[in-house]
Design brief:
The complex is a heterodimer of chains A (516) and B (224). Chain A has 516 residues and is mainly α. Chain A contains 20 helices and no strands. Chain A is globular. With 224 residues, chain B is α+β, with helices and mostly antiparallel strands. Chain B is built from 6 helices and 11 strands. In chain B, strands 10-5-9-6-2-3-1-4-11 form a 9-stranded antiparallel beta sheet. Chain B has a two-stranded antiparallel sheet with strand order 7-8. In chain B, a hairpin with a 2-residue loop joins strand 7 and strand 8. In chain B, helix 5 packs across helix 6. Chain B is globular, with a radius of gyration of 18 Å. The chains are: A mainly alpha (516), B alpha+beta (224). The interface between A and B is large, with 51 and 56 residues.
Chain lengths: 516, 224
């Protein structure tokens, strides 16, 4: 008789994706439930909005990761590889620049930031376009780096020195308040839409190359692209010298289920437009490349990509609605309630706890870990990467909360932090440096700006701090600490693999014969 | 060479560690893992990405003694007979590049060359088709029509005459390698079908060949 045991039964991919996203949202929901039962009693209306939001985030993230795998990543690597195959610089450079500008302008996260700062610069378009050009230029730089085989660490060194020189110059001329914001925009622009695309452009080019170092070079694009916005916002700040005023987003409270439906009913169309607008340039670029220089994908390949785009679209709409409608008010309320407590230092461990679990719910993180896993053929396991990312962000959020409560200048954290990250670059394998700097931009996505940022702003208002100089900067911290934590993972990896190699050296150097 | 066998197993990615552990427990000194993709069976499911197709290909070299216990363990421990759990093939090894290779694969064990106890069924072959990127579906459609049950894809880079340089960067051709396990009786049909539908005269620019296989495990009814 045949023994049938279904322990190893095959699962469909969608159920595993939803399960994956469920397990990343559940811990956050759980912490919020505990908090609402103890420290921060929440209104039942807020809880209702949050629960619906959490549900939307779960389903949305599941669909998005599915779509990212079947559409965003293939499109990115297709565009990256096909354009390079043309072997004409006058095609490659403008295309990369355009791709950078378009996907950045379309990024929903950046649009939120631009709206918040509407009144600071003459119009939100100025900020959008400047940041877009910043990313475009750096995407071209990242590409030229791959061609000219310049090591990523030297470029990062040069550009971060430039960033800090500018930061100190700004502080000295009284624009210090703009520094946290500049760093934040670096983290924010590389959000759920652009990250999968940028990462897969890199890996697409890497897949095409057969020379040494192709794998390492596949990463680092996001790392360079995160510098673009920092520099461009700083330069914009020096030119415009704006007063920073943020448009206060009020927390909408619902009292009954009718209002709940109304709230989500008005939010859905908004994100449908935003996400549609964000996807449009990516789709356009894909078809243009396919039309002009692309090789065929096959009919089924095309259908898969189109279906994947649909998944991405719906997934991202649900996700962003869930985060911004469901998580935003809860974050802000919890933040301000704990900030008002006499023992508001509890925000430090609570923030760290949130940070630890929130990264796991960040859609772009999923894309990064999968790409790293694929490119290294599993040598860097998904789990090792995500755990070091989680620890990194936990530390980052904890420190950021401490900074807000004590009112310390952001640069006191950023300067030593980046110094450590830059020193580490020279001791870890190149691929870990590239992945680490990539993950800085990746970790600070929609969850960070939709939940952790309002949490921080809530605390900041409650302790009476200056929102512009102290509230912001959280995203900058989240973008920085993973640079250290993942490079430490690389250091451990290097030490371990050197030990193994030493063990293998025992084989004698005698001339060997074929055994047959 | 006698006394050694090459085992290759294909399974879902999440079982990868269990398989590696299994082979190590049965005496392999080094187990190699590479990422692969399955080929979807039904196209509608495939379009909607509802079929799980991320696979790993795990290979190890084992001695004849160990092969017997591995064959049993594949069924009793890894449950290879249940649907969708994976498939394993045992293949002969021709030679090893010196003692370094031997130690790399099986450690310090001695190889008993006289022993050749594992039965060689010799009823199956491993068909490998190498095509341009994106043409796996063409290969699989042809192969299925000719009676193949499934296949696994590994992304590969071609070198050779087509290797082009662009600045310092060498650009290679992107290829896909499709692995199909088949009964020997169906071999000709499948190979001809692939040659015709995805051969060198088509857009797929495919070439196809087959390797001998001692035995196949994990495809229900395959050995009947």
């Amino acid at each position: 008789m045949k023994r049938r045991n279904f322990i190893y039964r095959d699962k469909t991919i969608i159920s595993s994706k939803v399960k994956e996203s469920f397990s990343s949202v559940l811990p956050i929901a759980f912490i919020i439930l505990i908090l609402s039962a103890t420290l921060t009693p929440l209104d039942s209306g807020v809880m209702l909005v949050f629960i619906v939001g959490a549900f939307l985030v779960t389903v949305g993230m599941g669909l998005f990761t599915l779509g990212a795998d079947s559409a965003m990543t293939p499109i990115g690597s297709y565009v990256g590889a096909e354009v390079v195959k043309s072997k004409k610089l006058w095609i490659i450079i403008p295309t990369y620049f355009l791709v950078g500008v378009l996907i950045t302008i379309a990024e929903p996260d950046l649009q939120v930031l631009a709206h918040e700062l509407d009144s600071s610069f003459s119009s939100s378009y100025v900020l959008l376009i400047t940041v877009g050009v910043g990313v475009g230029v750096f995407l071209v730089i990242a590409f030229l780096r791959m061609l000219l085989k310049i090591k990523l660490k030297y470029l990062l060194l040069v550009f971060y020195i430039a960033v800090f020189v500018l930061a100190f110059y700004m502080t000295s001329i009284g624009l210090g308040g703009l520094v946290p914001l500049s760093f934040d925009s670096g983290g924010v622009t590389t959000g759920p839409m652009s990250v999968p695309f940028i990462i897969s452009i890199g890996t697409g080019v890497a897949a095409l190359r057969s020379d040494n170092g192709a794998e390492e070079d596949g990463f680092g694009l996001t790392a360079l692209c995160s510098i673009g916005p920092i520099l461009s916002v700083m330069i914009l700040g020096v030119i415009f010298r704006p007063e920073i005023t943020t448009t206060e987003q009020s927390v909408i409270l619902v009292t009954d289920s009718k209002e709940l439906f109304k709230l989500f009913g008005t939010s859905f169309p908004k994100y449908f437009n935003e996400v549609g607008l964000a996807l449009l340039p990516i789709v356009a670029i894909f078809f243009l490349v396919r039309l002009f220089c692309g090789s065929k994908l096959g009919k089924s390949g095309l259908i898969k990509i189109l279906v994947g785009l649909l998944y991405t679209y719906i997934g991202l709409v649900l996700f962003l609605t869930g985060v911004n409608v469901g998580f935003f008010p809860v974050g802000k309320l919890i933040g301000s309630m704990i900030g008002e407590l006499s023992y508001n230092w509890v925000m430090v461990p609570i923030g760290a706890l949130f940070g630890f679990f929130v990264v796991a719910a960040e859609p772009a993180v999923h894309v990064l870990t999968v790409q790293v896993y694929e490119i290294t053929s599993g040598a860097i396991p998904k789990k090792a990467l995500s755990v070091s990312l989680m620890i990194g962000v936990a530390i980052a959020v904890g420190l950021a909360m401490l900074r807000i409560i004590l009112g310390i200048n952001l640069l006191y954290f950023l300067v030593p932090g980046y110094l450590i990250a830059i020193v580490l670059m020279f001791f870890v394998p190149d691929i870990f440096t590239a992945v680490a700097f990539d993950s800085g931009g990746v970790a600070s996505g929609a969850m960070a700006s939709g939940f952790l940022l309002p949490l921080a702003l809530g605390v900041c208002t409650a302790v009476g701090g200056n929102v512009a100089t102290e509230g912001y900067g959280l995203v900058a911290m989240i973008a920085m600490i993973p640079l250290i934590s993942i490079q430490i993972l690389g250091l451990v990896y290097r030490i371990k693999s050197e030990r193994i190699r030493k063990g293998n050296l025992n084989v004698s150097k005698r001339k060997e014969k074929i055994l047959d | 060479m006698k006394g050694l066998k090459y085992v290759m197993a294909i399974t879902q990615r999440e079982y990868s560690e269990q398989y590696v552990d299994f082979f190590e427990r049965h005496g392999a000194a080094n187990v190699l893992t590479k990422l692969a993709h399955g080929t979807a069976t039904a196209s509608v499911l495939d379009y909607f990405d509802l079929e799980k197709t991320e696979k790993v290909m795990i290979s190890a070299v084992l001695t004849e003694d160990e092969i017997e216990s591995v064959k049993k363990g594949l069924v009793s421990e890894l449950n290879l007979n249940a649907i969708g759990n994976g498939v394993a093939v045992v293949m002969p090894i021709d030679c090893l590049g010196g003692n370094t290779a031997k130690e790399y694969f099986i450690g310090n064990k001695t190889i008993d060359k006289e022993k050749n106890m594992s039965e060689v069924e010799n009823k199956s072959v491993l068909i490998i088709a190498i095509v341009d990127k994106g043409y796996t579906d063409t290969v699989m459609d042809a192969a299925r029509e000719a009676g193949a049950s499934g296949g696994t894809v590994v992304k590969a880079k071609g070198t050779g005459a087509h290797l082009a340089k662009f600045f310092g960067v060498s650009i290679s051709e992107e290829k896909e390698m499709v692995y199909i396990i088949s009964q020997k009786t169906k071999r000709d049909d499948i190979v001809y079908a692939i040659m015709e539908k995805a051969g060198n005269n088509t857009d797929a620019h495919g070439i196809v060949f087959a390797l001998p296989v001692d035995s196949v495990h994990g495809i229900n009814g395959f050995n009947d």
